[in-house]
Amino acid sequence: MLEADAISVRLAGREVLRDVSLTLVPGEFTVIVGPNGAGKTTLLRALVGDLPPSAGGVRFDGTRLDDWHGRDLARRRAVLSQSQHLAFPFTVHEVIALGLRAGNTGAKNAGAGLIAGVLARVDLVGYEARFYQQLSGGEQQRVQLARVLCQLGPPVLDGAANWLYLDEPTASLDIRHQFQILDLARQHVTAGGGGLAILHDLNLAADYADRLIVVSGGRLAADGPPADVLTGALIEDVFGVDASRVLRA
Ligand SMILES: Nc1ncnc2c1ncn2[C@@H]1O[C@H](COP(=O)(O)OP(=O)(O)OP(=O)(O)O)[C@@H](O)[C@H]1O
Ligand SMILES: [Mg+2]
Asked: What pTM did the predictor assign?
């Protein structure tokens, strides 16, 4: 279980997230939506312990994030960040192996088979020896997902849920791969894991989320089942567009 208690985050002297409280439970796929600059990535980074809140705190399975050892946390959750910068000419195999080292699946001789397995799950069979920097944007994004899946391990291990956090995992993907990746996340959560994703496509968000959180201007604007949250009034208020242009009938 992940609990944020009245967290605020200041960046460069500006409060970009204000007084956010929420509790996330395994088995429920939560999707965050909101305009550019609303504070979605900042919220996710605070929830995973990547950004210290200026006020409030975050507990993961009852223990403050500050009190977790990094190594233990890396075994329990995997994070796909919004931007990925790789300074060196890594192969696909090497990029994914970073996830193996960080996570709970790092048995020494399990490597090659495991990497081939996650590459198959993201539809990149045979890509091991390719250079990451020579892949297309969507292929790179799927390699990063494979890395995260490698780190993640099973949805539940020794009775504890493992958590998957995805910041715009479908941003560069064609529609088939968008479905494929969100199906993977959904399966993880349905099997008892924890899952949180940031998406911009409101229809995809409504299709996949059990719970939809809307962030606007650094605050929670709404939180609940997609059908309750995505009202015409909210879409017009938060996104400034006519709802009839956004949602499928
Ligand atoms: N390192 C930083 N230093 C200063 N300001 C930052 C920093 N990172 C983000 N911000 C600001 O904080 C606000 C929230 O940024 P955040 O990345 O959380 O937005 P977002 O909702 O994820 O947007 P997007 O949809 O574009 O990814 C923005 O105004 C942004 O300019
Ligand atoms: Mg963002």
From this structure: 0.94
Q: What is the predicted pLDDT for the residue at 103?
A: 61
Specify the number of domains making up the chain: 1
Instruction: Tell me, in angstroms, the distance from the centre of ligand 1 to residue 84's CA.
Output: 16
Residue closest by Cα to atom 7 of ligand 1:
11
Domain that holds residue 205: 2-245
Which ligand 1 atom lies nearest to the CA of residue 45?
Answer: 18
The span from the CA of 110 to the CA of 125, in Å, is 17
CATH of the domain at 56: 3.40.50.300
Which residues in the chain show pLDDT less than 50?
106-109
Strands 194-198 and 163-167 come out as: parallel
Question: For residue range 18-29, what is the model confidence (pLDDT) as tens digits?
Answer: 999 999 999 999
Residue nearest to atom 27 of ligand 1 (CA): 36
Q: How far is the C-alpha of 29 from the C-alpha of 195, rounded, in Å?
A: 5
Q: Is 42 in the pocket of ligand 1 (CB under 6 A)?
A: yes
The string of pLDDT tens digits covering residues 155-206 is 999 999 999 999 999 999 999 999 999 999 999 999 999 999 999 999 999 9
